[in-house]
Design a protein that fits this description.
Layout: H1 7-19, H2 22-29, H3 33-47, E1 52-54, E2 59-61, H4 63-90, E3 95-101, H5 109-120, E4 124-130, H6 133-141, E5 147-150, E6 159-167, E7 169-174, E8 194-198, H7 204-217, E9 222-227, H8 230-238, E10 243-247, E11 258-263, E12 270-277, H9 283-291
Parallel strand pairs: 3-4, 3-5, 8-9, 8-10
Antiparallel strand pairs: 1-2, 5-12, 6-12, 7-10, 7-11
């Protein structure tokens, strides 16, 4: 079976599949509408499948078209990455790696990894982007990032996950709060306080684990604010809007307006994991895994 499909056919098909409108897709591609229709028809004839159902006022993807849209979009992105890495090699770079991470990973884990890794593997480009857990999953599946650092217990089957840090939670209090490490006996002492917590959208599993801490302490927390940034939590705490619970790796020793009490006696721990797409062919990934 021989196909005469070229890269331009794939780009044209994906444009129409996105817009479901030949004229709009043609305008984005800077070609004529009849020319685009002809290229799509040529692709359909060569494949022997119908990709679109054409009606007077709308265009609908067939089942075959839906399947090709998903598969070709991923494969085209992978091909673009291959070309990009070839260009990096031509420019004297050994490659690049795009990281996604939750804020706590930037305190020590990622900086230490990059400093040590770059000593052994110079001439690499690193792109770093802070984002929530679920946004990282989306971008790993679409190959927009190569490696994520998340606080999740489960990921889609296309991804691999490896725990790299298990740590205690910490209580965050205003510096002037009456409780300290010596007087703190248990979370029950704070049942009348307002709590500022990471938004459940940050990670459902992480939020549920924090709720288990309250369940074991025998009360439901008064939640005054939810946020996705530790800096926002600290700013609210230092201005007496409430107290908080965060992973130990988020301790900010330079912030003199808040204080931290490690919850070392509770059973709940939080895990930071490394996650990646098992189909990602970025050659730098395996070097990172070996290094870690």
């Amino acid at each position: 079976m021989s196909y005469q499909i070229e890269l331009r056919h794939i780009r044209y098909f994906l444009a129409v599949a996105k817009d479901l409108h030949f004229r709009k897709a043609a305008e984005r591609l800077f070609i004529s509408q009849p020319g685009l229709s002809k290229q799509i028809k040529q692709m359909e004839d060569d494949l022997g499948v119908l990709l679109f159902e054409r009606h007077n006022r709308k265009v609908i993807l067939t089942k075959a078209g839906e399947y090709l849209k998903e598969e070709l979009a991923l494969n085209l992105k992978s091909l673009e990455h291959t070309f990009y890495h070839a260009k990096l090699l031509n420019d004297g770079k050994k490659g690049d790696l795009k990281f996604g991470y939750v804020g706590s990973a930037m305190q020590e884990i990622i900086p230490n990894l990059l400093i040590a890794f770059e000593k052994e593997h110079p001439n690499l480009l690193f792109s770093l982007k802070e984002m929530g857990n679920h946004k990282q999953i989306e971008e790993l599946l679409s190959y927009d990032i190569d490696l994520g650092f998340v606080r999740l217990d489960r990921v889609p089957k296309e991804l691999e996950i490896k725990p790299i840090l298990k740590e205690n939670f910490c209580l965050v209090l205003p510096h002037s709060h009456i409780l300290n490490k010596e007087t703190f006996k248990g979370l029950q002492q704070l049942k009348e306080e307002s709590f500022i917590l990471f938004d459940p959208k940050y990670s459902t599993t992480y939020f549920e684990k924090v709720m288990q801490i309250f369940d074991d302490s025998g009360f439901s927390p008064i939640i005054s604010h939810n946020t996705i940034h530790a800096s926002s939590i600290y700013k609210l705490v230092e201005n007496n809007f409430g107290v908080s619970i965060v992973p130990k790796s988020l301790i900010d020793i330079n912030n003199k307006e808040v204080k931290f009490i490690e919850l070392s006696k509770i059973k709940q721990k939080t895990t930071l994991s490394m996650v990646w797409n098992k189909h990602n062919r970025n050659p730098i990934l395996n070097r990172v895994f070996d290094f870690i």
